[in-house]
Design goal:
6 helices, three-stranded antiparallel beta sheet, mainly alpha, about 140 residues, DNA binding (chains A, B), 2 domains, DNA-binding, Multidrug-efflux Transporter Regulator, Chain: A, Domain 2, homodimer
DNA sequence: CCTTGCCTTAGAGTCCACTCGAAGGCTTAT
DNA sequence: ATAAGCCTTCGAGTGGACTCTAAGGCAAGG
């Protein structure tokens, strides 16, 4: 069974040893120790950390992650709470994607404009402005 | 013609007066002044600021925004540079959306799993893992 | 008249997630 | 044997974008 010392593990997952010790301190990832107290990580740790990184990549904060880990440690009784938490994170992420797409639409319209691809008729501009207003309204609904 | 004092403008655009003065200091938004040196903002400033906020919302940094504003101030000779800059920002934003969607896919799969909606057959799990590996590989291409 | 809002400069504080350094001491690899 | 890697604690530094305070003063509305 393959194991990794902290330096190898860091290289494998693309984090620094500092960060790994920091995550450990925060309770996110608890490696094993050998007879000399040296940390070692297993393939299971690789999978778990990659999952953590996916969660972080959705915008989940350290604090939410810590909550999640604590709930997990408490066993099956907390699956409902975990679900609520993950649903929150997911809907935040959806909102963020939507916001990004809206902002990007504006940016790309400006790019088109710079490239002279937009017919600069009053009608067109006005309809795009109306569209933007609608987007801005929608963002306020959050 | 409607104008706004800084407090009204702040309320209108949803920023603090601190932030508006900060943006001004950074050269992003330069309001007019009345006879007593009090700032006032026009409808054009509203539009410009909203555009700035859309750009910021795509992930464009202060520093990029400052570059953009400086180029703009230099006139038509810089449209090419502005286009390059905006293209960069747009492709970064696209990448960020893709990353978010990938991470969200993992999160939602986990949610499904919690809800018992996933057939926990070895085959299914393995194919999902293969899928994740593929996503992770793709992220490395950036 | 008095409160509220605005003006200035300059600097300090905040938040988040790391990131690093120091110091002293084991352990592992070549 | 020697270097490279790892161990600890603990505190300080980083970056980005604000966010706020202080101090002293002018200006408009009720």
């Amino acid at each position: 069974m393959t194991t990794y010392r902290i330096g190898q593990f860091a290289a494998k997952v693309g984090l620094s040893t500092y960060t790994l010790r920091y995550y450990e301190q925060e309770g996110l990832l608890l490696p094993h120790r050998d007879a000399n107290d040296q940390r070692y990580y297993t393939e299971a740790d690789v999978k778990w950390l990659i999952f953590i990184l996916h969660l972080k990549g959705t915008g989940m904060t350290m604090s939410q992650l810590k909550t999640y880990v604590k709930l997990r440690a408490q066993g099956d009784a907390t699956t409902d709470q975990r679900l609520v938490l993950l649903h929150d994170v997911a809907s935040e992420a959806h909102a963020q994607i939507r916001a990004l797409q809206n902002n990007l639409a504006v940016l790309e319209h400006k790019i088109d404009w710079y490239q002279g691809k937009v017919d600069a008729t009053i009608a067109e501009d006005e309809s795009f402005e109306a569209y933007l207003n609608r987007l801005d309204q929608e963002e306020k609904h959050d």
